[in-house]
Structure formats: structure tokens, C-alpha cells
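$ run holo --ligand "glutathione" --emit C-alpha cells
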Amino acid sequence: MIEILGRDTSLNVQIVMWAVAELGLVHKRHDLGGAFGGTDTSEYLAMNPNGLVPVMKDGDLTMFESAAIVRYLSHKYADQTFYPRDPKKRAEIDMWAEWNKTTFAPLLLSEFFYPLVRYDPAILDHAALDEAASKMATLATMLDDRLGEGPFIAGEDFTYADIIVGTVLYRYYELEFLRTSTPNIDRYYERLMSREAYKTHVMVSYEPLRWKPDE
Ligand SMILES: N[C@@H](CCC(=O)N[C@@H](CS)C(=O)NCC(=O)O)C(=O)O
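-- output --
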């Protein structure tokens, strides 16, 4: 039984939950982090010294970092299609997974998700939002070009890289900002939304995270 520690509203918990569900693994998730707390205890910090979610336990392995967890689970439990063992094949999709984690998702979260959801709307900087929208457009166009080559990041097949790349798209499309035209990402997102595991584990309302005056 795989255990996942982390609240279901966390993007990085969602990455792991979607993977576990796609792979059909028996699992249990525990609410921790955010309003649930529990991530600052010595017991938790011994599992993840960052005090962040998720943590994943599989037998005697305990690990943090959502994308590393997805790679581990895929390597252990998935077939060649979902997690190519061929170094070149995997490198070609892994760079997009890495790019999403280090470039696309951080821009979306820091410049849109936090200002539009987590912070007091009174301090919203519209000029900064416009500037960020132009940077976001450049990145979205790169992903759009890639997805012009096939229905998924790897081409024909759905892989672990789609999980690492695709999770943040729920927020990308739900947040209210001026998105550039990306017909290939639009179609990709439709494909992801048709997957039960995506609907259940990724399309989770982030309203509980919205800034409230008394916070
Ligand atoms: N790079 C880490 C980032 C983990 C992270 O930032 N987690 C956030 C939620 S998405 C967190 O723990 N926030 C504080 C909390 O929920 O208590 C990963 O991908 O797992």
C-alpha cells in the first residue's frame, strides 16, 4: 500500500495522486499541510526536511519531491510506454517534464496563482500581471509547438511526462488572465480532462486556498 501525505488542493500532491491513479496502485492519502498542518513536527521533518507536501511512502522507501516520486513510481510499476527505458526516448520527454517544473509552472504560480488567488486582491499589480502574461505567452507557445507534433508530450503515447506537465494546466486554464492563442495546448487539455484520474485528482477546486480578509 502506497501512502501519500498531503492535502488534495496541493498541485504537487495532485501530480503524485494522478500518477498513482493512472498506474492503478493501491494507495491512501492523508490530509497534511496548509490548514491541516502537521508538516512542522520532527517526525514529518525527518521525512521531508523542507516541511512541504507531498511525502510518499512505498514499503521501506520514504521520499519527497513530486516529480521524483512520479519517476520512481513509473520506473517501478509502469511499462515501457508510460516510462521509456530507452535513454534517448526518455530524455526527449524528460526535458519537457523538467522544463515544466522549473520554468512554466513556477511562472504561473508566482505571477498568477499567488497574486490572483492567495494574496489580497487590493494589492494586485495589474502592470505586473500584464508583463507576466507576455512572458507566459512565450512559454505557452513553446509548449504549443511541441504539442503540434503529437497528441501527447512523447508523441502518440501518454507518459509520466504528461502527468508532470499536465497537472498545472488546470490552474493555467482556470485562472483569469489573458492567455495567448494555443490551439494545440487547448486540445491537449481537452484530452487530459477526458481522463477519469485527471478529473478526480487534478480538477480539484482551489477555492479553499483563496485569500480571506481575516488571514
Ligand atoms: N518541489 C516540491 C514542492 C513542494 C511544495 O511546494 N509543496 C507545497 C504545496 S504545492 C507546500 O507544501 N505548501 C505548504 C503546505 O501545504 O503546507 C515538490 O514538487 O514536491
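-- notes --
The two ends are 37 Å apart (CA to CA).
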